[in-house]
Amino acid sequence: MGGSEARRRSAPRGGGDEPTAEDLAELARIVRTLGDALTRAERDTMEAWASTRTS
To answer: Where is this region: Disordered (predicted)?
Structure first.
């Protein structure tokens, strides 16, 4: 289990903790991996959906 995962599992839920650089790097890695697995059309659909979820 990675360090950031251990912190997340031991941290109280809903605590409002800011993500660490390590957390953001892990998220970026996951997003890249998912992006590599998606077709261009699937990416366009996902990006359109995500744009409705941000302000």
So the answer is: 1-24
